[in-house]
Amino acid sequence: MGNCVSLSISSDQSMKKVMFTTSRRIWRATMEELKAKRDDLSRRVWLTRVETFENEANNLLSARNGQLQRLCLLGFCSKSLILSYRYGKSVSMNLREVEKLNSKVFEVIVEQAHTFEVEERQLQSTIVGQKEMLENAWNHLMEDRVGIMGLYGMGGVGKTTLLTQLNNKFSGMTCGFDFVIWVVVSKELRVEKIQSEIARKIGIPFPTTQNRCKVAFTTRSKAICAHMGVEEPMEVKCLAENKGYDIIGSLVRASLLTDVKWYGTENVCMHDVVREMALWIASDLGAQKEAFIVRAGAGLSEMPKVENCNVVRRMSLIKNKIHHLPSSQEYLELTTLLLEKANLTNISSEFFKSMPRLAVLDLSYNGNLFELPDGISQLVSLQYLNLSYTSIRHLPRGVQELKKLIHLDLEETDNLSNIDGILSSLHNLKILNLSRAGFSLDCNILEELQTLEHLEILTIEIDLQQGLEQFLSSHKLTPATRNLTIRCMQLESSGISLPISMENLREFNIVWCSISEIKMGTICMESKTVSPLDNPRTSCFLSLSKVIILDCKCVKELTLLMFAPNLRVLSVQFAKQLEDVINKEKSRHGGEKSGIVPFRRLEFLLLGDLPELKNIYWNPLPFPCLKRIDIIRCPNLKKLPLDSQSGKHGGNGVIIRYTVKEWIETVEWIDEATKTRFLRSCLHVCETPNQDNQPHSSVPT
């Protein structure tokens, strides 16, 4: 009985050993085949079940030695029958699952993996200004370490366009991917819908460096990028400026645009023939003539008649006589409407009712336009609104609904009395021009300005001392300020200290003020705070190109200008106490050792009605860009910081204009060579009597 049992058991164990040995070989071979296929396809799809069975197989193989040690009688018997039985059963079950997965699952996966699929999306061939961003985004996405790429930025900046370009780029190259899946996620998030859309092609694993899957998405919020696990989110910025100038410059050099001067400003215009050609190209070689309606200066008294309003995309009605805009037809595709100098007096509240895609609206230079209809709230896609040089008395509450607005221009709206509560609703506002607006920049408006998260360019005028103090202490507003005008303030005791954070300041004006000193803020260096004058190698106002000082009492010097290396225009008039432009004593810490040579980019210098002015600078300066110096009634200015090498040479040398004929005879030239050179370019000019402390001559911009 015992032997039989023993034999029976032996026979059973012998069978198990043979089965174990044979099945182990088959199992291991099958598993290796499965792993080989997994290794070949793991870069393409997420083989969750493969990894599960692989882990189980590895665990069984790890336990193999222990199981072999339990065998006795030359491997025909086991010291623990129950454990050996369970182990063999696990091997058998795992083998069956592996073979099943190997024979069925991979048939589908391999069949799907043979073809590369990408749905190319419609897009215009080139997007102006995005070429560099596209290249950066593509290179970033192709890095092995990047699994998730997030593109964030404000609405309308071009995020979806950029992602579409990335999608279409895959149509010409596979780059090791089998599928490129485009999914739109709306505000009303439905995970099931997204999963269903993805599942129609394949299931997607969480991207890792091992599986080399990638996810790219766009969002307006940088916080969403962080939530999605993006380590280096990429901001998609507006074109709005140096790149824009480069593009315009290229068009000028190609003679497609022409340089023109208009009231001292630099502008460009397009020849009529070139414009007609551009319109012809833009209208699909004339096939869509009504897509672009251009009736500038045509003497229109009403909106032009259009056969099919729904195909109109852009409309220019500049310089016409359209006094009234009634309720309009449906312009469902209209994106740009230019009504500058159209002589508007009234706009119907229904006019904007059927323009859902309008993004650009220019109503500037309509001096008889006093009201803006509340119906403007229906322009839900509006990004640019220009109301400059109009007589608008107030902004309707409907403006608060323009959530996509990026650019708001209120320059010279001197009838505009109040905008409280408006600005804080325009969350995407990036460019804001408040220069010479009718309302004062009080603390309430300044607080609203500080809530604008995306604000990058600010042009303002301040006439309240409390507002000035709040503004200058704002770490949010000062770096964004492009143009700053301070007027009608009494600052004899405190002066003004410009923070060095104003690195983007381009134009600085002080008019009709009593001010003792114009200073700079401090610099933090090695845990201590010092004045820039103590570290004169530091240039603080790198963007500052134009400074106008008009009718300012008490100020005696403008030494801070030595820290504006790119200053192009300087006009100082009616500063009765001004003695030095740059004071030697104030800059003595740097002196000759500072390395700073002021006014290297200066082109125009205007000095007028400065009875106490004695010095511009104490040594000759190279002035390599200087074109003109105007000296108007500065009787004590005997020395000019010039030598024979100063200024531009050749036919375009420096012109010195002066109004008092005897003044040129009192100038003390540094040597005869300097005198000989510059006397040839000195020009005596007559001036019109000026009784109101207004600027004597035009100042270039």
UniProtKB/TrEMBL annotation:
Signal peptide: none
Coiled-coil ranges from the UniProt annotation: none
Start and end residues of each NB-ARC domain: 131-202
Regions crossing the membrane: none
Keyword terms of this UniProt record: Plant defense, Repeat
One Pfam family from the record: NB-ARC
Family of this protein: Belongs to the disease resistance NB-LRR family.
Protein name as it appears in the record: NB-ARC domain-containing protein
Organism: Brassica napus
Taxonomic lineage: Eukaryota, Viridiplantae, Streptophyta, Embryophyta, Tracheophyta
